[in-house]
UniProtKB/TrEMBL annotation:
It comes from Bacteroides faecis. The gene is dnaG_1. GO terms for cellular component: cytoplasm. InterPro entries: DnaG_primase (IPR050219), TOPRIM_DnaG_bac (IPR034151). One of its GO terms (biological process) is DNA replication, synthesis of primer. This is DNA primase.
Length: 344
């Protein structure tokens, strides 16, 4: 027997009080401390609409793996069978075990990060000739940490180094060589013929997997930041923050996933901050990657896609007027975006 809307709302209120739970950003799950292992923030109860793979009041802990697949099972698990309102479906029926994410048995979201040391002799800078060519302003240097080793560390000569900060800790870094890709390719071509030192365009940290990291994550304020713009790289984040004047805008922030895809850990991290709306801002030439990532995000957030009209331009190349036009007139739902790209 299906629960009525009033019964469902009653159960959600009671579970929220019983477990001291709070809804995630999309309002589809209650997040609480696990009654089994006691891990904070890893236990979820699905409260969205029933789908092929999900049923209301299924629950799962991403730390210890404990799951329940029915309302009755959930209430027994938390010790509140008195809240049972109506009989559930056959308890022997096979149901999916997914809640926030489709996990294999025994799998859990691993968002643990270790603190990373920056390269030796790293010093923060507030002016740099290469960053000047990338449009950096005084506000950018104040808002985003960036530095170099000032020629004192051979491995990082001619690199600018961006720390990746998560909840105040340095958990990684991206080092970008100041030469252009063409210059690096020409140098490496000569090196292959004559021998010598090959230059890497990027020399990044290796301690924490980048699928666990989001650049500018600390700009997403828990319970405050409603909307985020997801981009591919650091310079996209800097450009959008400058051109959309997001420095002091706590309701919206730009983050980078370090490429044209998003991991379940990155989704979980955004969801845990209470984000409700995601604007997917990958480069205009990444049509298939945008479609795939939008589908992955759509289960957890309200998703819009920034449809950049010129596929050759990224956020650095676009003017403020062009960006304003995209946000005013070219934000597409995933369905609209698919239809438009079929027609083009």
């Amino acid at each position: 027997m299906a629960l009525s809307q009033s019964d469902t709302e009653f159960l959600i209120r009671e579970l929220t009080k019983e477990l001291d739970a709070k809804p995630d950003g999309a309002g589809k799950n209650l997040i609480a401390r696990c009654p089994c292992c006691g891990k904070e923030g890893k236990y979820g109860i699905y409260i969205g609409k029933q789908t092929v793979r999900k049923k209301p009041f299924m629950s799962h802990c991403f730390s210890c793996g404990r799951s329940t697949y029915s309302l009755e099972g959930l209430l027994d698990f938390i010790g509140r069978p008195d809240l049972m309102i109506a009989p559930t479906t056959d308890l022997n029926a096979k149901l999916g075990t997914t809640l926030l994410f489709p996990l294999e048995e025994g799998e859990e979201i691993d968002d643990a990060l270790g603190i990373v040391e920056l390269p030796e002799f790293y010093r923060r800078c507030f002016t740099h000739p290469y960053l000047k060519t990338r449009g950096f302003t005084y506000d950018d240097y104040e808002y985003f940490q960036v530095g170099s080793t000032r020629g004192l560390n051979f491995r990082y000569d001619d690199y600018v180094i961006f720390p990746i900060i998560d909840r105040g800790d340095i958990v990684g870094y991206v080092s970008r060589h100041t030469w252009s890709k063409d210059e690096i390719d020409r140098h490496n071509s000569r090196v292959r013929r004559k021998g010598g030192y090959r230059i890497l365009r990027f020399r990044n940290s290796t301690e924490n997997d980048f699928v666990k990291l989001l650049y500018n994550y600390d700009a997403v304020k828990e319970g405050v930041t409603d909307t985020i713009i997801i981009t591919e790289g650091i310079f996209d984040v800097v450009a959008l923050t400058r051109k959309k004047e997001l420095y002091d805008n706590e309701s919206m922030a730009a983050v980078a996933t370090f490429g044209k895809k998003i991991s379940r850990t990155q989704i979980y991290k955004l969801q845990s901050k209470g984000v409700k709306t995601v604007i997917l801002g990958y480069d205009g030439d990444a049509v298939e990657a945008i479609k795939k990532t939008a589908d992955e995000l759509n289960a957890y957030f309200r998703v819009l896609i920034a449809d950049i009209p010129d596929a050759k331009k990224d956020w650095e190349d676009l003017s403020c007027d062009e960006i304003d036009d995209i946000f005013s007139h070219r934000l597409r739902t995933p369905a609209e975006y698919r239809l438009l790209k079929v027609q083009e």
